[in-house]
Amino acid sequence: MRRLFVVAGHWAVFALCFLLLDDRSSCSAFVVDHIMDHKCHQSSAVLMEASIKGDPEKNVRMFTDKLVTASGKPVCRYALGGAARSTQSEYIPLKYRDMLQNSDDERGAPFYFYYNPHRYPQFLSGVSQSFDDSTTRRDIFFASGGTERSPAALDQRLDDALAICGGEYIDGFVLEYVCPDELDSDTQLGKELQNAIDHVRSYVRENRVRYVMASTHSHRVGRALAGAAPLDAIMLRYNMSHRKAAETISFPETLENDIPVLAFTTTRWNELQRTASPTVTTADCITFALQHPAVEVVLHSARDEDELDDALLPIIACSDSTQWMPDSKYDDLCSYYGDEMAWNDDGFDEYPDESI
Question: Global pTM?
Answer without folding.
Answer: 0.83
